[in-house]
Amino acid sequence: MAVATEEGLQTLQLSLPEELILMLLNEENGYFHQVPGWRLNCAVVGAVLAELSLLSRIDTDLESLFLVDASKTGDPALDPILEEIASESVQRNAQYWIERLAHRAESIIDLTLDRLVELKILEYHDGDFWTVARTVRHSEMYGDPEADTAGQFIKTRIGKAIFTDAIPDPRDVIVICLVNTCDVFRFMFQLDEEAEERIEFISKMDLIGRSIAAAVLHNVAGPLLRRSRLTKHIPRVPLRKLLSNPNARIGNLPAVFADLAKQYGPVYQIRPPFKKPMVFLAGTQINRWTNRHGRMHLRARDYFADFEKVYGASGVLPSLDGADHFRLRKALAPAYSRRRLADQVDDLLRHTRKHLAAWRVGDTYSATKMCRRMINAQISPMYVSVDSQDIFDDLSIYKERALNVHITKALPRFMLKTPGMKRRARAVDTLLGRIQSVHTPAQRAGCPRNLADDLLSLNASDPQFVPESNLRFALSAALIASVYLGDAFSFAVYAMASRPADYARIRHEAAALFGNGDPDGDDFTPSALDFTHRFLMECLRMYPIVPMSMRTVMNGCVVEGYELPVGKTILIAQTATHFMDDVFPNPYTFDTDRYRAPRHEHRGPGYAPYGLGTHRCLGFRWMELQLAINMLMVAHYFTVEVFPEDFKFRFNPFPSMKPSKKLKFRIAEQVRELPA
To answer: What's 508's domain CATH number?
Structure first.
């Protein structure tokens, strides 16, 4: 295998665990062929044992596995296994070692994935997706120079072993044994009876592969059959406990979820009056499980279906799962990328200054409305090339009512059909008409590409994948982003205005960036934004916009010892960890040093302001840069104060987290003139 390095292409022999992972990767959906957990764990450990055997560190027969050479291989995925085998004084068989080492499979997979990314064989994408890098080519010594990627090369190799009479290489025999054990060949190749017989024949050719496969198969059923007997009863939270919680009284839902998890454990249920019990999951291990296994057991479409129908849509990005979600996410990723915003920083600065020019010293503004409209003044022209300030309030009010009716179920359905809501619904069509009127080839010639261009192109090139009926939602959702980003901005402005010392530090970074004229996109480096970025990270921890995610169990599973049956609706409180002191010490203290070395408290699944797993916010890197630039510009030109001065902070938590309506900002001072 030839891989790209700084010195050029180099030939490299991949290990059996690496080849197994590449074989299991489904390049259509960016993840791996679904293999039951125990079966996958055993196959991964089997691959490690087989690699150690090929490296002459161990040997095995049908009766026993024994140590040959205890010297280290230099591979961090192999050496801990070899060390554990060497520490055992009694000789055991392969089945014993697979059972004993199965719990190590996840760490082996993580190390293997990291290694493949480091070698530029795999590319990692936000949301826990992987793709095979197109730059990878295998050397001609392996034959078949037409294969494009490492994964395709390995599959071509294995395919030749299966579909021809050639004698397979010993490594290929073991790979075939392991993949056959995982039962995923049927997803990779079109198998007829002859091919299936050939696979079974090859699987018996090598003693090592045969003994490992036998050990795996003998252990598949046990853990699955024991699942229901070993699960725990999900505790029920008395309603009085919820209502008496001090964090509930101020609307701080993440802190409420953290309090309940501390008392009742990571899985608990709440029964609202006249409604079915609601099952909540919260904690670091829950977040880790959701990141790693959520896509195999949970789906998003059920809770979102009625909401998307309000816009006449079906199968939009938030409601898709699996391969369709991955494909659409990849197609839209450039539109939401930090790079695209960085390339248009001049436009962002121009739109921002135009909006700030209307601020007057002494004026007082509703915090939520002020920040949402400021963000929309930038998002609307940059995402969809139109001005929508005159209809933005109608769009956001209609969207929030639809969420409260169809997502949170806090309001009855007729509340979306009142005369006022029908009038506001027409704003969606007004927006769509404006976008379509300016997105003609002549009018867009020479303009930087934006989200509307990408969506309209996808509709034109593949109308079944992105139908016209979905554009009403997709294009208006671009402005709905102004609501979420605007609310995050309002929290950040409140935090800055409440902390004069932090305000001064942000203003200092702004002066360094804007002191010699406008910076370009590449000037907003980590060092230039050091404090501002950490300040925003802490704001997103203490004031997350979306505190939880709703999902439906599509494949029954056990999480932290609790069984989640098929069809159950669950709420994953991913931001509860933001208020758990074992993750963030003194969680109610605003502390920007959490994100500096050596603390780095945000590293790991405990920091989750953008969601988890495959549905993690696609535009979070754009969001981080836009928030930072807005904070810097406000601090550079104005002094903003909290009004009233004695305001006691409260959240308005539905349908998403935002400050109380009583919070206002007063423009206390204009520090310098805005450029004309």
So the answer is: 1.10.630.10
